[in-house]
Amino acid sequence: MELNELYELARELEAAGAEHYEEVCQQIYDYAELGEQEFQSSAYLKEQLEALGFTVTAPIGGLPTAFRAEYGSGHPKVAFLAEYDALPGYGPLKDQNGHACGHNWIAANTFGACDVLRQLYDRHHFTGTIVYMGCPAEEMLGGKVNMVDAGCFDDIDAAMQIHIAGGTETKLAGQSLAIDSVEFTYHGVSSHAAGAPERGVNALDACYLMFDGVNALRQHVTPDARIHGVITNGGLAPNVVPALASSRWFVRAADRKYLNELTQKVINCARGGAMMTGAEMEWRYFENSYDNMKLNRTLIDAMAECMKAAGVENINTAEEAPRGSSDVGNVAWVTPTIACNMGIGNTDGAECHEESFLCNVIGERGFAGLHKAVLSQAFLALRIFTDADMQKELAGQKQAILAERAAR
Ligand SMILES: [Zn+2]
Ligand SMILES: [Zn+2]
């Protein structure tokens, strides 16, 4: 069957399932659970997928709310990166969780794509495996890092995600920065700050001398680097020399290899603070380290065509300068991956994480985008499942990515 005919079938199936996908979108929105606590959301999604005949494996990656649901058999194995964690700090009293990043919308668009593909698989239109990858805690922990480290993506041939975004433009080649999250703790000696200052070892001094060191370092980093820190413990009373002080830092760069060097330089600044004051210093990573996004031109170009066929307008495939960091980056370093940002069409300037964006992740506008995202992903997966040349290309890319990862 021609690809165009397959697309037509997919459109019919999507239309038939549309209401169901909207329900999934609304239900995860209503649960609004924070990262690592998405027990109802993940249970609901697993149940829904099992009802469709998917085989569920859970938990995976050492994370209680991570799971994998698959349908079909053999290669290629195409993974849809579902997310379902919400953010805190919304509502009138700012004490409610909300899906201001639209992860409910991602949970639903991946679900819809899997459901459409399942039915096409049943009609013998392709062979391969459809994988719904339940990835928890994107906002807080970066659950995909644990999943990558646990080998959850080792057998995956391609991975995709469509994230929601503010505005009308859809970006297919957004980059993200590699990031290390580092905490430094200094242990000094307390004494009376006026009566016996000579007996004290000032842990807070060590802390801000480190800030001075990092500020000097800034002159000698590449323009993509971002280093930002806060003091999380700076002592308790001015008349007591602080015996304990600590700071937390995000160190970012466009490339993991360079970031590894840069983080070592920041650690050396912290050592300098310790040497200058005589305080003892210890450090640790307090969150997962993310890799930079590795763009895949094959998937970007193919997705642009699929999105056009799905009715998405204003598609931008140019490389975007990186702004933040994402755990999708780690996935992109073990398998060819595409991460898109689909403009949902609001014109009020509201962006993800803002309270005023919440109305876009459900409702008429959110659902209209949802259906285009379902179709875009189903179309791209159909191309991968039915195009032997593309499969070969992706397999070669996977080997190249893994070799580059091992060498960095
Ligand atoms: Zn977010
Ligand atoms: Zn997000």
Quick recap:
This protein has 408 residues and is α/β, with parallel strands linked by helices.
Structure description:
The protein is elongated, with a radius of gyration of 24 Å. The protein folds into two domains: 3-176 and 290-407, Zn peptidases (Aminopeptidase, 3-Layer(aba) Sandwich), CATH 3.40.630; 178-285, 2-Layer Sandwich (Alpha-Beta Plaits). It is 41% helix and 20% strand. With 408 residues, the chain is α/β, with parallel strands linked by helices. It has helices at residues 3-31, 39-51, 103-122, 143-149, 203-217, 256-277, 297-309, 328-332, 363-386, 388-407, and strands spanning 55-57, 67-73, 77-82, 87-90, 96-98, 128-134, 158-165, 170-171, 178-187, 226-233, 244-253, 280-285, 315-316, 337-343. It is built from ten helices and 14 strands. It has a six-stranded mixed β-sheet. It binds zinc ion (2 copies). One zinc ion is lined by residues 101, 103, 138, 163.
What is the number of beta strands?
A: 14
User: Are any ligands bound, and if so which?
Assistant: zinc ion
Overall body shape: elongated
Structural class from helices and strands? alpha/beta
Report the CATH topology name of the largest domain: Aminopeptidase
Give the helix tally. 10
- The largest beta-sheet arranges its strands as 1-2-6-3-7-14
The amount of beta strand, in percent, is: 15-25%
